[in-house]
Design goal:
By secondary structure, the protein is α+β, with helices and mostly antiparallel strands. The chain contains 10 helices and 12 strands. The relative contact order is 0.08.
Length: about 350
Protein backbone atom coordinates (compact mmCIF):
# COMPACT_ATOMS: atom_id res chain seq x y z
CA UNK A 1 0.00 0.00 0.00
CA UNK A 2 2.81 2.39 0.93
CA UNK A 3 4.65 1.46 -2.26
CA UNK A 4 1.57 2.25 -4.34
CA UNK A 5 1.20 5.62 -2.61
CA UNK A 6 4.88 6.40 -3.23
CA UNK A 7 4.55 5.43 -6.89
CA UNK A 8 1.51 7.69 -7.30
CA UNK A 9 3.29 10.64 -5.70
CA UNK A 10 6.35 10.05 -7.86
CA UNK A 11 4.21 9.88 -10.98
CA UNK A 12 2.41 13.10 -10.04
CA UNK A 13 5.74 14.83 -9.47
CA UNK A 14 7.00 13.66 -12.85
CA UNK A 15 3.84 14.97 -14.52
CA UNK A 16 4.27 18.37 -12.87
CA UNK A 17 7.89 18.51 -13.98
CA UNK A 18 6.96 17.56 -17.55
CA UNK A 19 4.20 20.18 -17.65
CA UNK A 20 6.54 22.93 -16.42
CA UNK A 21 9.36 21.79 -18.70
CA UNK A 22 7.20 21.75 -21.82
CA UNK A 23 5.47 25.05 -21.08
CA UNK A 24 8.52 27.13 -20.18
CA UNK A 25 8.55 30.13 -22.57
CA UNK A 26 12.22 29.61 -23.45
CA UNK A 27 14.10 26.84 -25.27
CA UNK A 28 15.48 24.17 -22.95
CA UNK A 29 17.83 21.40 -24.05
CA UNK A 30 19.18 18.65 -21.80
CA UNK A 31 22.35 17.00 -23.08
CA UNK A 32 24.55 14.05 -22.14
CA UNK A 33 28.11 15.21 -21.43
CA UNK A 34 29.45 11.64 -21.42
CA UNK A 35 28.76 11.16 -25.11
CA UNK A 36 31.03 12.23 -27.92
CA UNK A 37 29.88 14.43 -29.44
CA UNK A 38 27.67 15.84 -26.68
CA UNK A 39 24.17 14.69 -27.55
CA UNK A 40 20.68 16.02 -26.86
CA UNK A 41 18.57 13.72 -24.67
CA UNK A 42 15.57 15.93 -23.92
CA UNK A 43 13.97 19.11 -25.31
CA UNK A 44 10.88 21.13 -24.51
CA UNK A 45 8.13 22.37 -26.81
CA UNK A 46 9.66 25.83 -27.18
CA UNK A 47 12.87 24.27 -28.54
CA UNK A 48 10.87 22.39 -31.17
CA UNK A 49 9.20 25.61 -32.27
CA UNK A 50 12.44 27.59 -32.28
CA UNK A 51 14.49 25.15 -34.32
CA UNK A 52 11.79 23.57 -36.50
CA UNK A 53 12.52 19.97 -35.51
CA UNK A 54 10.29 17.53 -33.65
CA UNK A 55 11.37 16.27 -30.26
CA UNK A 56 11.99 12.84 -31.76
CA UNK A 57 14.32 14.36 -34.36
CA UNK A 58 16.27 16.41 -31.83
CA UNK A 59 16.81 13.63 -29.29
CA UNK A 60 20.04 11.88 -30.25
CA UNK A 61 21.28 14.87 -32.28
CA UNK A 62 24.71 16.36 -31.47
CA UNK A 63 24.04 19.70 -29.79
CA UNK A 64 26.48 21.39 -32.16
CA UNK A 65 24.13 20.63 -35.06
CA UNK A 66 21.84 23.39 -33.79
CA UNK A 67 24.54 25.99 -34.52
CA UNK A 68 25.91 27.08 -37.91
CA UNK A 69 29.39 25.89 -38.87
CA UNK A 70 31.07 29.16 -37.91
CA UNK A 71 29.61 28.99 -34.39
CA UNK A 72 30.44 25.39 -33.50
CA UNK A 73 33.82 26.22 -31.99
CA UNK A 74 31.96 28.50 -29.56
CA UNK A 75 29.69 25.57 -28.66
CA UNK A 76 32.74 23.37 -27.96
CA UNK A 77 34.25 26.06 -25.72
CA UNK A 78 30.96 26.35 -23.85
CA UNK A 79 30.81 22.57 -23.31
CA UNK A 80 34.38 22.48 -21.99
CA UNK A 81 33.63 25.19 -19.44
CA UNK A 82 30.45 23.46 -18.27
CA UNK A 83 32.41 20.23 -17.81
CA UNK A 84 34.62 22.22 -15.43
CA UNK A 85 31.55 23.02 -13.36
CA UNK A 86 30.96 26.54 -14.67
CA UNK A 87 27.70 28.24 -15.60
CA UNK A 88 28.26 29.96 -18.94
CA UNK A 89 26.37 32.78 -20.67
CA UNK A 90 27.25 33.51 -24.29
CA UNK A 91 25.80 34.85 -27.52
CA UNK A 92 25.89 32.01 -30.05
CA UNK A 93 23.97 31.86 -33.32
CA UNK A 94 21.36 29.14 -33.73
CA UNK A 95 20.48 27.35 -36.96
CA UNK A 96 16.97 26.15 -37.74
CA UNK A 97 15.97 23.10 -39.74
CA UNK A 98 15.50 25.27 -42.85
CA UNK A 99 19.11 26.56 -42.43
CA UNK A 100 18.03 30.06 -41.41
CA UNK A 101 19.96 31.55 -38.50
CA UNK A 102 19.00 33.54 -35.45
CA UNK A 103 21.09 35.29 -32.79
CA UNK A 104 20.83 33.43 -29.50
CA UNK A 105 21.65 34.09 -25.87
CA UNK A 106 22.75 30.76 -24.44
CA UNK A 107 22.99 29.91 -20.74
CA UNK A 108 24.49 26.49 -20.01
CA UNK A 109 25.12 24.82 -16.66
CA UNK A 110 25.71 21.37 -15.17
CA UNK A 111 22.53 19.58 -14.11
CA UNK A 112 22.47 20.05 -10.30
CA UNK A 113 21.06 16.52 -9.90
CA UNK A 114 23.36 14.76 -12.37
CA UNK A 115 26.75 16.20 -13.31
CA UNK A 116 26.90 14.00 -16.41
CA UNK A 117 24.23 16.22 -17.93
CA UNK A 118 24.22 19.80 -19.15
CA UNK A 119 21.11 21.99 -19.15
CA UNK A 120 21.01 24.64 -21.87
CA UNK A 121 18.55 27.50 -22.33
CA UNK A 122 18.44 29.44 -25.58
CA UNK A 123 16.72 32.80 -26.12
CA UNK A 124 16.20 34.26 -29.58
CA UNK A 125 17.50 37.84 -29.27
CA UNK A 126 16.66 38.99 -32.80
CA UNK A 127 14.46 41.81 -31.48
CA UNK A 128 17.16 42.87 -29.03
CA UNK A 129 19.76 42.91 -31.82
CA UNK A 130 17.42 45.03 -33.91
CA UNK A 131 17.06 47.49 -31.04
CA UNK A 132 20.84 47.63 -30.72
CA UNK A 133 21.20 48.31 -34.44
CA UNK A 134 18.60 51.07 -34.28
CA UNK A 135 20.28 52.53 -31.20
CA UNK A 136 23.64 52.57 -32.99
CA UNK A 137 22.06 54.39 -35.94
CA UNK A 138 20.55 56.94 -33.55
CA UNK A 139 23.93 57.42 -31.87
CA UNK A 140 25.56 58.06 -35.25
CA UNK A 141 22.89 60.65 -36.06
CA UNK A 142 23.31 62.33 -32.68
CA UNK A 143 27.05 62.53 -33.29
CA UNK A 144 26.49 64.10 -36.71
CA UNK A 145 24.02 66.68 -35.36
CA UNK A 146 26.28 67.57 -32.42
CA UNK A 147 29.21 68.13 -34.77
CA UNK A 148 27.12 70.27 -37.12
CA UNK A 149 25.82 72.41 -34.24
CA UNK A 150 29.32 72.81 -32.81
CA UNK A 151 30.96 73.64 -36.12
CA UNK A 152 28.11 75.83 -37.41
CA UNK A 153 25.65 77.53 -35.06
CA UNK A 154 27.88 77.54 -31.98
CA UNK A 155 30.84 79.03 -33.83
CA UNK A 156 28.67 81.67 -35.49
CA UNK A 157 27.12 82.69 -32.16
CA UNK A 158 30.55 82.94 -30.56
CA UNK A 159 31.68 85.17 -33.42
CA UNK A 160 28.63 87.42 -33.03
CA UNK A 161 29.19 87.70 -29.29
CA UNK A 162 32.78 88.81 -29.88
CA UNK A 163 31.64 91.41 -32.42
CA UNK A 164 28.88 92.68 -30.12
CA UNK A 165 31.46 93.25 -27.37
CA UNK A 166 33.68 95.12 -29.85
CA UNK A 167 30.78 97.25 -31.10
CA UNK A 168 29.83 98.07 -27.52
CA UNK A 169 33.29 99.56 -26.92
CA UNK A 170 32.99 101.62 -30.10
CA UNK A 171 29.47 102.87 -29.32
CA UNK A 172 30.39 105.84 -27.11
CA UNK A 173 29.81 108.25 -29.98
CA UNK A 174 26.70 106.41 -31.18
CA UNK A 175 23.10 107.63 -30.66
CA UNK A 176 21.67 107.28 -27.11
CA UNK A 177 20.58 103.76 -26.28
CA UNK A 178 22.93 102.08 -28.76
CA UNK A 179 25.34 100.88 -26.08
CA UNK A 180 22.48 99.49 -23.97
CA UNK A 181 21.11 97.66 -27.01
CA UNK A 182 24.52 96.16 -27.76
CA UNK A 183 24.96 95.11 -24.13
CA UNK A 184 21.57 93.42 -24.28
CA UNK A 185 22.56 91.67 -27.52
CA UNK A 186 25.75 90.44 -25.85
CA UNK A 187 23.73 89.05 -22.93
CA UNK A 188 21.28 87.26 -25.25
CA UNK A 189 24.12 85.76 -27.29
CA UNK A 190 25.88 84.57 -24.14
CA UNK A 191 22.69 82.83 -22.97
CA UNK A 192 22.20 81.28 -26.42
CA UNK A 193 25.75 79.93 -26.39
CA UNK A 194 25.15 78.36 -22.96
CA UNK A 195 21.98 76.69 -24.29
CA UNK A 196 23.76 75.47 -27.41
CA UNK A 197 26.53 73.97 -25.29
CA UNK A 198 23.90 72.14 -23.23
CA UNK A 199 22.38 70.73 -26.41
CA UNK A 200 25.79 69.57 -27.63
CA UNK A 201 26.46 68.01 -24.22
CA UNK A 202 23.12 66.17 -24.34
CA UNK A 203 23.72 64.89 -27.87
CA UNK A 204 27.41 64.11 -27.68
CA UNK A 205 28.21 60.39 -27.49
CA UNK A 206 31.32 59.27 -25.65
CA UNK A 207 33.34 56.46 -27.21
CA UNK A 208 33.16 53.84 -24.48
CA UNK A 209 34.48 51.22 -26.93
CA UNK A 210 37.79 53.05 -26.47
CA UNK A 211 37.34 54.30 -22.91
CA UNK A 212 35.31 51.49 -21.39
CA UNK A 213 31.78 52.11 -20.17
CA UNK A 214 32.52 53.12 -16.59
CA UNK A 215 35.44 55.45 -17.47
CA UNK A 216 33.17 57.08 -20.08
CA UNK A 217 30.49 57.51 -17.43
CA UNK A 218 33.04 59.09 -15.10
CA UNK A 219 34.03 61.52 -17.85
CA UNK A 220 30.38 62.35 -18.50
CA UNK A 221 29.74 63.23 -14.85
CA UNK A 222 32.97 65.23 -14.55
CA UNK A 223 32.22 67.16 -17.74
CA UNK A 224 28.70 67.88 -16.52
CA UNK A 225 30.03 69.36 -13.28
CA UNK A 226 32.50 71.56 -15.16
CA UNK A 227 29.87 72.64 -17.70
CA UNK A 228 27.33 73.63 -15.05
CA UNK A 229 29.71 74.80 -12.33
CA UNK A 230 28.38 72.45 -9.67
CA UNK A 231 29.75 69.51 -7.66
CA UNK A 232 28.98 66.32 -9.59
CA UNK A 233 30.03 62.91 -8.29
CA UNK A 234 29.78 59.30 -9.52
CA UNK A 235 29.66 56.30 -7.17
CA UNK A 236 29.96 52.74 -8.56
CA UNK A 237 29.27 49.64 -6.46
CA UNK A 238 29.41 45.94 -7.24
CA UNK A 239 31.21 43.86 -9.90
CA UNK A 240 31.52 46.02 -13.01
CA UNK A 241 32.21 43.05 -15.29
CA UNK A 242 28.72 41.61 -14.76
CA UNK A 243 26.93 44.60 -16.33
CA UNK A 244 25.24 43.31 -19.53
CA UNK A 245 26.55 45.16 -22.59
CA UNK A 246 23.00 45.69 -23.84
CA UNK A 247 22.30 47.85 -20.77
CA UNK A 248 25.19 50.25 -21.34
CA UNK A 249 23.55 52.55 -23.89
CA UNK A 250 20.16 53.00 -22.15
CA UNK A 251 21.86 53.55 -18.79
CA UNK A 252 24.27 56.07 -20.28
CA UNK A 253 21.55 58.00 -22.10
CA UNK A 254 19.21 58.13 -19.12
CA UNK A 255 21.99 59.33 -16.82
CA UNK A 256 22.97 61.90 -19.45
CA UNK A 257 19.42 63.16 -19.76
CA UNK A 258 18.91 63.14 -16.00
CA UNK A 259 21.99 65.34 -15.63
CA UNK A 260 20.81 67.55 -18.47
CA UNK A 261 17.51 68.09 -16.66
CA UNK A 262 19.39 69.00 -13.47
CA UNK A 263 21.51 71.52 -15.37
CA UNK A 264 18.50 73.12 -17.02
CA UNK A 265 15.89 73.12 -14.28
CA UNK A 266 17.05 72.10 -10.81
CA UNK A 267 19.09 75.15 -9.75
CA UNK A 268 21.23 72.68 -7.82
CA UNK A 269 24.71 73.06 -6.36
CA UNK A 270 25.45 69.33 -6.37
CA UNK A 271 24.48 66.15 -8.22
CA UNK A 272 25.17 62.51 -7.39
CA UNK A 273 25.00 59.52 -9.75
CA UNK A 274 25.05 56.03 -8.19
CA UNK A 275 25.36 52.79 -10.19
CA UNK A 276 25.03 49.48 -8.34
CA UNK A 277 25.58 46.21 -10.21
CA UNK A 278 24.87 42.84 -8.60
CA UNK A 279 26.64 39.55 -9.28
CA UNK A 280 23.86 38.36 -11.60
CA UNK A 281 23.97 41.50 -13.76
CA UNK A 282 21.02 43.38 -12.31
CA UNK A 283 21.49 47.14 -12.06
CA UNK A 284 20.13 49.99 -9.95
CA UNK A 285 20.94 53.55 -11.05
CA UNK A 286 20.04 56.75 -9.26
CA UNK A 287 20.54 60.38 -10.30
CA UNK A 288 19.82 62.93 -7.58
CA UNK A 289 20.35 66.61 -6.87
CA UNK A 290 19.89 69.14 -4.06
CA UNK A 291 17.94 71.60 -6.19
CA UNK A 292 14.49 73.14 -6.01
CA UNK A 293 12.61 69.88 -6.63
CA UNK A 294 9.15 69.53 -8.15
CA UNK A 295 5.85 67.73 -7.70
CA UNK A 296 6.11 64.34 -9.50
CA UNK A 297 2.31 64.11 -9.70
CA UNK A 298 2.38 67.04 -12.11
CA UNK A 299 4.39 67.55 -15.27
CA UNK A 300 7.85 67.94 -13.85
CA UNK A 301 10.95 69.60 -15.24
CA UNK A 302 11.96 66.44 -17.07
CA UNK A 303 8.84 66.69 -19.19
CA UNK A 304 9.69 70.25 -20.21
CA UNK A 305 13.30 69.59 -21.15
CA UNK A 306 12.59 69.39 -24.85
CA UNK A 307 14.82 66.37 -25.17
CA UNK A 308 13.74 63.23 -23.41
CA UNK A 309 11.06 63.39 -20.68
CA UNK A 310 10.05 60.91 -18.05
CA UNK A 311 7.60 59.13 -20.34
CA UNK A 312 10.30 58.40 -22.91
CA UNK A 313 12.69 57.29 -20.17
CA UNK A 314 10.08 54.82 -18.89
CA UNK A 315 9.49 53.45 -22.38
CA UNK A 316 13.20 52.80 -22.81
CA UNK A 317 13.43 51.04 -19.43
CA UNK A 318 10.28 48.98 -20.03
CA UNK A 319 11.96 47.49 -23.12
CA UNK A 320 14.19 45.69 -20.63
CA UNK A 321 11.51 44.86 -18.04
CA UNK A 322 12.91 47.57 -15.79
CA UNK A 323 11.28 50.18 -13.59
CA UNK A 324 11.70 53.93 -13.23
CA UNK A 325 10.71 55.92 -10.15
CA UNK A 326 10.95 59.61 -9.32
CA UNK A 327 11.14 60.94 -5.77
CA UNK A 328 10.90 64.69 -5.29
CA UNK A 329 9.20 67.50 -3.43
CA UNK A 330 9.39 71.22 -3.89
CA UNK A 331 12.49 72.61 -2.22
CA UNK A 332 13.91 69.15 -1.44
CA UNK A 333 15.71 68.18 -4.64
CA UNK A 334 14.89 65.18 -6.80
CA UNK A 335 15.97 61.57 -7.28
CA UNK A 336 15.52 59.46 -10.40
CA UNK A 337 15.89 55.69 -9.81
CA UNK A 338 15.96 53.01 -12.51
CA UNK A 339 16.12 49.27 -11.86
CA UNK A 340 17.05 46.69 -14.51
CA UNK A 341 16.82 42.93 -13.87
CA UNK A 342 19.53 40.39 -14.72
CA UNK A 343 19.34 39.41 -18.39
CA UNK A 344 18.71 35.77 -17.42
CA UNK A 345 15.39 36.82 -15.85
CA UNK A 346 14.07 38.10 -19.18
CA UNK A 347 13.35 34.69 -20.65
CA UNK A 348 9.64 35.40 -21.12
CA UNK A 349 10.52 37.52 -24.17
CA UNK A 350 11.27 34.31 -26.02
CA UNK A 351 7.55 33.69 -26.06
CA UNK A 352 6.76 37.00 -27.74
Amino acid sequence: METSHFDSASQAGEQRYRHLFDHMPICILVTDLTMAPVTIIEVNRRAELAYGYTSAEMVGMPVGNLAPDDARSAVLTLVQRVRQGQTVTAEIAGQRRDDTRFPGRVIAAPDPTDDSRMIVTVEDISAEKQRRSEAEAIEAERRRIAHEIHDGVAQNLAGLRFKSALWSHLADAAPPGMRDALDELHTVLTAAIVDIRRVIFALRPLDWDALGFFPALTQLVDDFGDQNQLAARLEISGPQDTLPAVYELPIFRIIQEGLNNIGQHARASSALVCVTVDAAGGVVVSVCDNGRGFDPSQRGPADHSGHFGLRQMRERILDFDGTLDVHSARGLGAELVITLPPIAQKGHHAAD
